[in-house]
Amino acid sequence: MPDPEVATTKVRFDLNGSVAAVDAPIGQPLLTTLREGLGIRSARGTCGVGVCGTCTVLVDGRAASACLLMTQQVDGREVVTSEGLVGDHGELDEVQDAFLGANAFQCSFCIPAMVLTVRAHLDEHPDADAEDVREALAGNLCRCGSYPEILAAVDELVAARAADDVAARAADDAAVDREDPR
Amino acid sequence: MPVASWLEPTSLDQACDLLADDEFESTALAGGTAVSLMLKMGFLDPERLVSLARLPGLDQIDVGDDHVDIGAAVSLSQVAQHATLRACLPSLATACASVGNVRVRNIATLGGNLAEADYASDPPAVLVSLGAVCVIRGPSGERRAGVEDVVVGHYTTSLEPGELITSVRIPTPPGRSATYLKYLTRSSEDRPCIGVAARVDRAEARPDASVTGLDVVVGAVAGTPQRVAEATEAEVGRPLDRAAADRLATAYAEAIDPIDDARGSSWYRTQMIEVFVRRAVIELSDGPGRGGTA
Ligand SMILES: Cc1cc2nc3c(=O)[nH]c(=O)nc-3n(C[C@H](O)[C@H](O)[C@H](O)COP(=O)(O)OP(=O)(O)OC[C@H]3O[C@@H](n4cnc5c(N)ncnc54)[C@H](O)[C@@H]3O)c2cc1C
Ligand code: FES
Ligand code: FES
């Protein structure tokens, strides 16, 4: 039962591509709204003060701590959780694939947040090198200490993307050569 | 008491009036990274929250010929990543890039960082060293005040009820170079044990040109950013060399009486003030390969 003493506001936002509409108590952390009202399990509360990163979500494409955001702050905005990275037919995002490929997890509690942080960083900085991505991950803690595997996943992903770029550029050049034989 | 209302004014006048109305206890909220924590810890118990998110114009960055205006709602990430700001305000971009973690930087605003007036924040010391001025809007109009006159004590500003910082104006004269050194004692995403912001102005944009202005400001050691004006003023017109760095380091370590906290004891901070003031000044000094007008 909602507490009649608690004032709420209507908040509408895009959650993983669908409309979410909730009556949220004023100031209620987005994390609570996602987990208790909207069935999201990948954003997880641990420290509650912005430090550990397990509650990471993307707001308009940028990583944020859902424990520090009030639900009202995302009204009209786009929120993505790790669930939202999966395609319509269950296809995993390249970052999710890279983590799986490198066995980059133990209990996996922290992993959805790590994946989102990497995703956001690569979207904002498509040419980021592995060092940049590591830097972005500095604020995501892993209680199991899976850091070596997590960083290995990042290294492999960044290397694979660079190789794809080189291949794509070579293919472009070849196409240009075919059109315009010099 | 739970918060009774959430307001989203769409004009500055409206926002200032709402905040000035002391019948209700109102708290402004920009990124909310500090307000959220204060609510959770029970340090704040406002009747209404006034979100600044829909105010027009607060998210602008304007680069002028001899100054830059940064809107109060510009995020720390935006400052850290803005190519022009990185070139013309490198110490500020460095300080913003060093704040907490990427999630905090993405949401936290420059205005909120100043208005929080936390003694262990990074940007305030840098802004003071650069002579930055806050543009402040209140129920009775606009005023300007240097950052050192806005951040006036532990979690205390000189802002009156209903007053909001709308932007920060930072001078960018030719011949200026500046640096920020953040010294961490716990983890890479922590607030600083100490932070040293140094800025030098030269008659010409050459490292060997004579020094026309100098400032060194130490953050996280007291309620407000600290400077030792006699020491910096004494170096104007002289070569900024290793000897000057030593003199400044000693003067700062002697003059500042640092606080104790979990990031370092007062004694330890004094030692670190000496080390990091010296390093910051050496970075801006005249020696070969040093002090480029970054
Ligand atoms: C995990 C974590 C790590 C952090 N690490 C660092 C660090 O290393 N270095 C550092 O410097 N800081 C650090 N911080 C603090 C962070 O920088 C501040 O919380 C943030 O800058 C505040 O900005 P905001 O927009 O979120 O402010 P809000 O939380 O919205 O507001 C903060 C205060 O300012 C007032 N306010 C907001 N905007 C205005 C305005 N325009 N005019 C007048 N008053 C206003 C509010 O009423 C409130 O009192 C950290 C914070 C967290 C959570
Ligand atoms: S629970 Fe949000 S950062 Fe730790
Ligand atoms: S894998 Fe267990 S917390 Fe990271």
Topology:
The complex is a heterodimer of chains A (182) and B (294).
Chain A: E1 8-15, E2 18-25, H1 30-37, E3 56-59, E4 62-65, E5 78-80, H2 94-101, H3 111-124, H4 130-136, H5 147-179
Parallel strand pairs in A: 1-5
Antiparallel strand pairs in A: 1-2, 3-4, 3-5
Chain B: E1 5-7, H1 12-20, E2 26-29, H2 33-40, E3 48-51, E4 61-63, E5 67-71, H3 76-81, H4 83-88, H5 90-97, H6 102-107, H7 110-116, H8 123-129, E6 133-138, E7 141-146, H9 147-150, E8 151-153, E9 156-157, E10 164-171, E11 176-183, E12 194-202, E13 211-219, E14 226-227, H10 229-233, H11 242-255, H12 266-283
Parallel strand pairs in B: 1-3, 2-3
Antiparallel strand pairs in B: 4-5, 5-10, 6-7, 6-10, 8-9, 11-12, 12-13, 13-14
The complex binds flavin-adenine dinucleotide (FAD) and FE2/S2 (inorganic) cluster (2 copies).
Flavin-adenine dinucleotide binds at residues 27-35, 52, 72, 99-100, 104, 107-109, 111-113, 115-116, 121-123, 159, 164-165, 191 of chain B.
Considering the chains and any ligands shown, give keywords for the structure:
heterodimer; A: 182 residues; alpha+beta; Ubiquitin-like (UB roll); 5 strands; B: 294 residues; Uridine Diphospho-n-acetylenolpyruvylglucosamine Reductase, domain 2; Uridine Diphospho-n-acetylenolpyruvylglucosamine Reductase, domain 3; Enolase-like, domain 1; 3 domains; five-stranded antiparallel beta sheet; four-stranded antiparallel beta sheet; 12 helices; 33% helix; globular; disordered C terminus; binds flavin-adenine dinucleotide; binds FE2/S2 (inorganic) cluster
Describe this entry's structure for a reader.
The complex is a heterodimer of chains A (182) and B (294). The model of chain A has no long low-confidence stretch (mean pLDDT 93). The termini of chain A are far apart. Chain A has a single domain (8-179), classed as Ubiquitin-like (UB roll), CATH 3.10.20. With 182 residues, chain A is of the alpha+beta class. In chain A, a hairpin with a 2-residue loop joins β3 (56-59) and β4 (62-65). Chain A contains five helices and five strands, in the order ββαβββαααα. Chain B has 294 residues and is α+β, with helices and mostly antiparallel strands. Chain B folds into three domains: 5-51, Uridine Diphospho-n-acetylenolpyruvylglucosamine Reductase, domain 2, CATH 3.30.43; 61-171, Uridine Diphospho-n-acetylenolpyruvylglucosamine Reductase, domain 3, CATH 3.30.465; 176-285, CO dehydrogenase flavoprotein, C-terminal domain (Enolase-like, domain 1). Helix content of chain B is 33%, strand content 24%. Chain B has twelve helices and 14 strands. Chain B has a five-stranded antiparallel beta sheet. In chain B, β13 and β14 (226-227) form a beta hairpin. In chain B, α11 (242-255) runs antiparallel to α12. The longest helix of chain B has 18 residues, at 266-283. At the A-B interface, β4 and α3 of A face α2 and α6 of B. Bound molecules: flavin-adenine dinucleotide and FE2/S2 (inorganic) cluster (2 copies). Residues 105-111, 142-144, 146 of chain A line the site of one FE2/S2 (inorganic) cluster.
